[in-house]
Amino acid sequence: MLNEQTIQVIKSTVPVLEIHGTAITKRFYERLFTSHPELLNIFNHANQKQGRQQAALANAVYAAAVHIDKLEAIIPVVKQIAHKHRSLGVRPEHYPIVGEHLLGAIKEVLGDAATEEILQAWAEAYGVIADAFIGIEAQMYEQTEQQLGGWADFRAFKVDRKVKESDVITSFYLIPEDGKSIASFEPGQYISVRMSIPGEPNTHIRQYSLSDSPEKPYYRISVKQEVETRDKPAGHVSNYLHQEVKEGDVLWLSAPAGDFVLDQQDERPVVLISGGVGLTPMVSMLNTMVEKQPHRPVTFIHAAQHGKLHAMRESVEQLARIHPQLSAYWCYNQPTDLDKETNAHHREGYIDSKWLQSIVPTRDAGFYFCGPTPFMRAVNGILKEWGIPQSDIHFEFFGPASSLEPV
Ligand code: HEM
């Protein structure tokens, strides 16, 4: 454990490091990839380019440092990151490498301000934080490997079927090449896909939520083809999956992971709110509930730009026809003429507080939401304003976790 003196040094230097956080983590990654280019096979290059990962790592280290004398207070956050690490194949031997370059980057960026005492304190703190991660990840690796149908690292899966769900979303049904069983999962969890693209030196790893219920002979992921926009380049891996990966091809998957999961002990009603491709974990939760908790009332709310971008509409409507406990609502912000003519949607515009309260039968429910960050901020604000307790609000970010506070 760290002594009081070290804890004081850490706490007094967190604000300084926060100011230089982006510079430190940028330098850290440059150093890391120069001396360990093989780690480019693990890290998401697109997140790197957009600076998203830099911010996530810096924030996590500082958050951990602030709580350095009571790390157990941030166990939920550590667990969420540890799920991601386990899914990516991060191993204990990686930690000293990351530590060395993080410390090296702090020294370079702070210059003379980084005294021996400060560097020593941070080296010790990093050791404590790393040990917390390594311990939790070791348990996760063990559970994953011992679970029926589970496996370590990456396993070959064949694309059994490719099904177009909307103009931009396609589902991939994946079955293990070895023909053996596959691990069950909690609805809401994701898998990592490791992809080699011909002609490229490094592999790419991406996470995709599982979009069907567990206990099927396949895993289903539903991937949005990310086209280029003003602030984002085209999705390298999603475009490759859509355009080049064919039925019969092999994808490498790590076992299901993630802590954004449906609470199946809870018998109260559930409200599932999604925006765009954020519907994938929600459909997994929905399919699971109609199979396993058929008496549990579900309100399924999906926001899309218009009908052509609305995935899985048919299958959810089909469920709603046969399950009276399920109500489904569609909100389009740019409905097409056809949408308008056919009354395809229940609301035009965005989800707001009044509409939400008019369609959700009770606020004594579990609320789950997923979608683009601005959508999530809006939904979170609406739920807070309605007085939904934090313990009933569950959400998941795509990509590195971010903040739900209004900007
Ligand atoms: C993701 C923190 C060590 C590799 C993350 C995230 C955080 C984080 C906050 C983002 C989680 C999310 O997406 O929600 C930390 C901390 C570490 C640490 C505090 C040390 C104590 C490591 C090590 C490796 C590693 C040793 C392996 C070389 C990754 C990768 C991702 C990730 C590859 C996903 C990033 C991406 O692909 O964009 N980590 N991490 N991390 N971490 Fe770590």
TrEMBL record:
Example of a GO biological process term: cellular response to nitrosative stress
Cofactor comment: Binds 1 FAD per subunit. Binds 1 heme b (iron(II)-protoporphyrin IX) group per subunit.
Active site (UniProt): Y95, E137
Cited InterPro entries: Cbr1-like_FAD-bd_dom, FAD-bd_FR_type, Flavoprot_Pyr_Nucl_cyt_Rdtase, FNR_nucleotide-bd, Globin, Globin-like_sf, Globin/Proto, Hmp
Cofactors required: FAD; heme b
Record-linked PROSITE patterns: FAD_FR, GLOBIN
EC number per UniProt: 1.14.12.17
FAD-binding FR-type domain sequence ranges: 152-263
Catalysed reactions, as listed in the record: 2 nitric oxide + NADH + 2 O2 = 2 nitrate + NAD(+) + H(+); 2 nitric oxide + NADPH + 2 O2 = 2 nitrate + NADP(+) + H(+)
NCBIfam families per the UniProt record, alphabetical: PRK13289.1
Protein name from the UniProt record: Flavohemoprotein
Organism from which the protein derives: Paenibacillus baekrokdamisoli
